[in-house]
Amino acid sequence: MQQDLDQIVHSIVSNPSAPTLSLDNLGLDTAALVAILPYLESLQNLSSLSLTGNHLATIPNKFNTLAVLTNIDISNNPFSNLIETSKLLATMPSLKALTITCDAEESTAIPLLIPTLTVLNGKPVASSARRHKPNHNPKAHATMHPRDPDVEIDLESVEELFEAVKVSLMSDENKRV
Predict the structure, then answer these.
(1) Ramachandran region of residue 29, left (φ > 0), alpha (ψ -120 to 50) or beta?
(2) What domains appear along the chain, each with residue ranges and CATH number?
(3) Residue 142 forms beta bridges with which residues?
(4) Which pTM does this prediction carry?
(5) pLDDT tens digits, residue range 61-100?
(6) E strand or H helix at 129, and its extent?
(7) Where are the beta strands (DSSP E) in 37-164?
């Protein structure tokens, strides 16, 4: 894998002004992505990154250092927790477009966690999905989005939605068995 990483790093640094980069189907896992992150950070014009078809279980915590990245394709990766992945993506200051493998209910919840999104899986995100106001449950944990103070996110409701989706999916799988 080290030789593969060396080749990937070489392809990254050989075009330092590249606005787009495709690292599709390279077998990258999260540790490999962490290893090449400093080289990705050196691409000052990188606005679009494709990591489709790899082995990513999560996005590195420091992925928000890709300050000008507006478009990312992370579809066809085995993410272990879409809630946590979405929360990490929400820290990316310029992210506007995301392509990720998810079901219909998850695609409804993701814009609640990443309110800067304008496009999800090639489709416009309704502004009402990004401007979700929390319910009036005093126990609900609402947070203000750091880059858009008009956006409040009811994290408890989003996490409940994801849990309901998981239960529904497990129930469907059990019915098939």
Answers:
(1) beta
(2) 2-127 (3.80.10.10)
(3) 154
(4) 0.72
(5) 888 899 899 999 999 999 998 889 999 999 998 999 999 9
(6) helix 127-130
(7) 48-50, 71-73, 97-99, 119-120, 123-124, 142-145, 148-154
Helix (H, G, I), strand (E, B) or coil at 75: coil
Which CA distances in Å does 155 have to 14, 92, 110? 41, 18, 11
CA-CA distance, 119 to 128, in Å (whole number)? 13
State whether residue 30 is helix, strand or coil. Answer: helix
Six-digit token string for 147: 């880059």
The alpha carbon of 3 is separated from its chain's Cα centroid by a whole number of angstroms, namely 27
Asked if 48 contacts 27 with a C-beta cutoff of 8 angstroms, the reply is no
Per-residue pLDDT, averaged over 29-34, amounts to: 94
Average pLDDT over residues 2-12: 84
Phi, psi of 79 (to 5 degrees): -60, 135
Cα 163 to Cα 90: distance, rounded to the nearest angstrom: 20
In whole angstroms, how far apart are CA 29 and each of 4, 24, 33, 87? 12, 12, 6, 19
Which SS3 state, helix, strand or coil, does residue 66 take?
coil
